[in-house]
Design brief:
Radius of gyration: 17 Å
Distance between the termini: 35 Å
Order of helices and strands: HHHHHHHH
Helix content: 55-70%
CATH architecture: Up-down Bundle
Low-confidence stretches: none
Number of domains: 1
Strand content: under 5%
Number of strands: 0
Structural class: mainly alpha
């Protein structure tokens, strides 16, 4: 590259596409006063005969209830996602994201039938735990992974037991577990 010439690089296609879809879903939700979010981008227990129930198990991560919620989640996704996509590849990262999405959606719908879930918090915690495993050498478990797991997951368990604030702390914990399992799975490869 010639000196002084800068250009934009589409460096992380999965992460950038995910952020774009989240932005679009959040925008549509805001423009419809939450109706589109509730119909398409929020998972909750409904009739097993409702085809949208199965769609929402995967699309709930795109919708966010506010711009603050969106920015909070996308900041983490944009900080950690490109590094993870570079290390593990686009397809494996997309598969981990889908596993996290489906797992958090199913757990919510099965165990919390009266609570709706939306947002990318589970993916954020997947990325946090997955990124803390990336520096494993010679089979050792990084101290940073243990500290992140204790701090983030421990905080979510405590908050989930002590505060009722409409935040799905369980999806954070499940997302973190999916990230840890994926990270150790990548190590075996």
């Amino acid at each position: 590259m010639a000196k002084g010439h800068l250009h934009l690089s589409f460096n992380s296609p999965v992460v950038l596409m995910f952020v774009a879809l989240c932005f679009l879903a959040t925008l549509l939700g805001q423009l419809s006063d939450g109706a589109i979010t509730q119909a398409f981008f929020m998972t909750y227990r409904s009739s097993l005969l409702d085809p949208l129930m199965y769609v929402r198990l995967f699309t709930h991560v795109f919708g966010h209830v506010s711009w603050e919620h969106f920015v909070d989640n996308m900041t983490i996704v944009l900080l950690l996602g490109p590094l993870l996509e570079e290390k593990y590849g686009s397809r494996p990262l997309a598969e981990v994201m889908m596993a996290s999405t489906l797992t958090t959606g199913l757990v919510n719908d099965i165990f919390f039938p009266h609570q709706a879930l939306c947002g990318a918090s589970g993916i954020c915690f997947t990325f946090i735990l997955l990124s803390s495993i990336t520096q494993v050498r010679n089979g050792g478990i990084p101290l940073t992974f243990i500290l992140v797991a204790v701090l983030f997951l421990g905080q979510q368990v405590v908050l989930g037991l002590t505060i009722q604030d409409n935040v799905s702390n369980l999806s954070h914990v499940i997302g973190g577990i999916v990230g840890a399992v994926a990270g150790f799975g990548f190590l075996r490869q």
